[in-house]
Amino acid sequence: MINLVYNEMVKITGKRRLVVVTLIIAILISLFTYAQFQQAAENRKRFGDVDWRTALEQRIAGWESRLANGSGRGDEGELEMRIAQQRYYLDRNINPSEPGAPTFVRGFVENGITLLLPLMMMIVAADLVSSEHSSGTIKVLLTRSVRRWRILLSKYLALMLSVSIIITLFGVLSTVISGLVFGFQGWDAPVLTGFTVTGGELDTSGVRSLPQWQFILMELGLAWFVSLVVATITFMLSVLVRTTAAVMGIMLACLIAGTILREMVESWETAKYLFMVNLELIDYLQDADPPIAGMSLGFSLLVLLVWGIGALIVSFVSFTRRDVY
Amino acid sequence: MKGNWIQGLMAASALSGLIWLGGLGWTLQDYFAGAPDTAGTSIPAAAEETPALAVDDGKFRVVALGDSITRGAGDPDGKGYVGYMVEALKTKAKDQEILVKNYGINGMRTPDLAASLTEPAVRSELKAADVIVVSVGGNDLFRGGETLGNLNPDNIASIQEAYLVDLDGVLKDLRGVNPSAKLFLIGLYNPFIAMKDTKTTTKIVRDWNYQAAETAAVYPDTVLVPTLDLFQLQVQDYLARDQFHPNAEGYRLIGERVASLITWKEESE
Question: What residue stretches are annotated with the SGNH hydrolase-type esterase domain (chain B) (predicted)?
Fold first, then answer.
C-alpha cells in the first residue's frame, strides 16, 4: 500500500502541482503583506502624531467606567476580556494596528478558508483520476493485478498527504514572509473566542481568551478539515467526469456560488445543507453571526463530514464498477 | 536521490496531517467543552461593592457623569473638560484635596444615564459629592450625525421632547440623591457650525440649550453652563480630528468655564 501511495506522490510531484501551489501561495502572501505594509504606512501618515497608547488607554478607561457604573448590560465578562486584551498591547508596547506576523497569519487563514485554500486543493485534486483517462494511462493502471479500490485508495491517501502539506506550507510561508516585514511578536496575544448565538442574539457569556498561537493552530485545523472535504468532493468529480477542465469548472462554480450564496441565503433556509455555504468555520469562533439561523460549528462540521463521506462512497462505487474502454 | 526526497515529503505531510487533525480536535474540545474559566475571577469584583463613603472628611468631591465629552474623547491627553476643570480648581485652592470620579461613557444618551444612576456604587459617590457635572444630550440630538440628514423641525421637536422628559428624570433623580451639591449641566455646542446649514443647526442647538436650561431651572443649585459661544467663532481651532469632539484647547475652555463657577465659601464654613 505504501508503495502505491508513494507511486501516486511521485505522479503529483512529477506534475509540479505542489510547486505551483507553493508559488501561488507565496506570491499572494507577498502581495497581501505589501498591501498591509502600505496601509500601515498610510495610517501612520494620517494619524501619525496621535499616540496610540493614549487612544488605547482612553478606550480602556471608557470600558472600565462602563463596568463601574454597571451599564454593561450582561456583557461584563466580555468587557473584562477586552480590557485584558488591550492591556496586553499596552504592556508589551505593541501597536494593535501594526501587529506582527501571528496576527497577519490569523487574518490570512480566516480569509483564505472559503476560497483561496479550496482553490489550491482543487489544483491538486482535479486531475488525479481524470488525467489517467485523458492520457490513456488508466488502462495500464487497471490491468495490473492490484484491486481497483486499492488503486483509488492510494490516490486518495496521496491527496490527503498533499492537503496536509499544503496547509503546512500555507502556515509556514505566511509566517515567514509577513514576519520578515512585520516582525514575529505577539504569539501569546489574547484572542477572544467562545461567542455563541442564541435566539438571534450574540451571547457573550461564554467568552474566553486564548493565546494567539493556539487560536492559529485551531484555525489551521479547521482549514485543514475544510480543505480535505473540498479535495474529496473534487476527487469524486475527477472520478465521475473524464475531462479535467470540466472538473475544475464545476468546482469553481460551486465555490464561487458558495461565496455569493452566503451573502443572500438568509431567507432560504435549506441552503444550509449545501457544503459551500458551510466553509466559513472560523467565523463560529469569533463574534460573527451565522449566515443562516440555526447554523453552528457542530452543524457545519457535520454537513461537511456527510458531504465528504458521501463523495468518498460515490467515488469508490463508481470507480470499481465502471467499465473502462 | 529523488526517491528519498519524496519519502521525506510524505513523512512531513503525514506529520502535518496529524498536527492539523490535533488542531481540529483542540477546536472541537474548546468549542464544545470549553468552560469559561474566567467565571471564578469575576465574582470577587462584584462582592466588594459596598462602599460607605465618609462625607465630611474635608475632601472636595467631584462626580462627572455623561457622554464622550465627560470621558474626554478627542483630547490626546484624555483629560477632557473634567481634567482641565480640576486643574483650574487646584490652582485656585492649593491645599484643598480634590477627588474626581469620572463615569463618562462614549456614546451615552440620556436614557443610558438614567439607567446608570441606579447603580449603588454610583449613588454612593453621588451622595458624597460636592459638585456634580453632567454632559448629556449631544448623542440624543446628533445620533452620530444621523440627524444631519433630517433637519426638519418635526423630527427635531420629537427628539427634543423625548430628551427633555429624560433630562428632567435624571435631574430629579440626582437632586433626590444629593440635594445640596452644585449641579452643572454642560450645554451643547455646535460642532457643525463650519458646515452647510449653519443657521439651522445653530438655531437647533440654541433652542436645545434654552429648553434644557428651562428644565434645569426648576431645581435648586442647578446651572446650565453654555458652551455654544466658546465654539462659535473659531470652531476649527477647538475641534478634534473627528470634527465632532473638542480637542485639548476646546476642553480647556469648557473646563475653565465650569471651574470659574465653583466657589469655595461653602467649604470654609
Answer: 64-253
